[in-house]
Every structure is written in structure tokens, then in C-alpha cells.
Task: structure prediction
Amino acid sequence: MPAFNEAKLIERSLSSIRAAAVAFERRGWKYEIVVCDNNSTDETANLARAQGARVVFEPVNQISRARNTGAAAATGDWLLFVDADSFPSAGLLADVAAQIETGDCLGGGATVELDEAIGWAATLTRGWNSLSRWRRWMAGSFIFSRTEAFRELGGFSHELFVAEEIEFSRRLNTLAKSRRQRVVILNRHPLKTSARKMHLYSSREYLWFLARSVLGLGGTLKKRESCGIWYDGRR
Result:
């Protein structure tokens, strides 16, 4: 779990993960929760420790680096990345477990659902879910992968400050095809995620970011200062 100043929601997120992990426990599987404190200035790290999570530190404020640092500390055969403002259900983790048990799944993600109905955001979410299932692109808020495959691919790109999950999805899909394995997007139990950013940022700000990203041929994604929606600290 990458976490930058997530004191408001991290306890709820960790509690939901522990409750959902009953799907693993029923199979006799062990799991660990690793939180990567991405240079937070609030109580994120202390709250995570109080919830029983193992906390590691990444000084460079970048989502991909935080995920990679957390993954480097993990010891399991599979990695599951969940954002600190997202709340997976037992049904979703049971679907992940079922895919793992097939033996031919290399990784995947899930469709997403906001925890609050907001018109324009709901439309955007539906559009993303359709694209995600079509292209097998994983939403950054929920990604699972075989550990050895993740490490073979070198994890998430340090060149990107956003959209690193799409770039990783492309490489994981290529690897899966070469191995005759699958990447899946689960949709029976969508990941519930916070709608807070839809209140903190307007639809105009999102559209302006998308327009700059397209016109800049993706160069915007490689500059932290251009990705304020993720890095300006509004919480």
C-alpha cells in the first residue's frame, strides 16, 4: 500500500483489507500487509503501525517508487497493491484467490466503484471500467501479480508520475502472452474507492490535465509538477 499523507482514510482501508482477507485465511494462506510511507508529514505511518501493518519508507514522493519499495519488502509469492483510499471486499479477494488457484493467471486488476455517487465522475468511472476490461489495463488502486513476474519486469516505471499502472499493464500483458498465461480484470465485485478527489478537484481540472497529457504526447506524465492532482497534497 503506497501512502502519502493518508491519515484520514488509511485506518478504514487497512480494516477493510483485514476483513476481506478472510478469503485467504479460509484457504489456509498467509498474508502480510506492507505500507510504504511515501515521505508523509502526517500520522500515516503511526496509524498504519497501530493497525498491525509493516511500514517501510520511501523518501522520493512518487507513486511508482512507493509501490516498488513496498514490493521489495514483501515476501509472498503474490503481490497485491491496494491504494490507501480504497476498500476491497471479501468477495473481490475471493475472486483473486480463485484466479490464483487456476495456475494460469499471471496477474490482474478489478473494475472500480466510487463510494459516493457523483454524476460526471460516475460517467468517467464507467468509461474507465469498459476500457480496462477491453485492454486488460489495471487500475492503480488494485493490482495483483505473481511476485516473480513483477520482479522480472522491473516493477513500475520510475519515469512516470501517473499512469504507471497502464504502462505496467502493457508489459504484464506482453509477458503473459509469451507464457500463454492470462491477465484478468475482475468485475463481479468492483473495488470500492473513495470519491474524495472528485470533491477536491473539479471536472475542469481533470479535463485540463487530460488535454495537456494528450497534447504533450505523454510528457506531462513524467513531471511531478504537472501532476498536481496526485502530488499537490490536497487531502
User: Anything to note?
Assistant: The first strand starts at residue 2 and ends at 3. The chain has eleven helices and eight strands. Residues 56 and 205 are 32 Å apart (CA to CA). The chain has a mean pLDDT of 96.
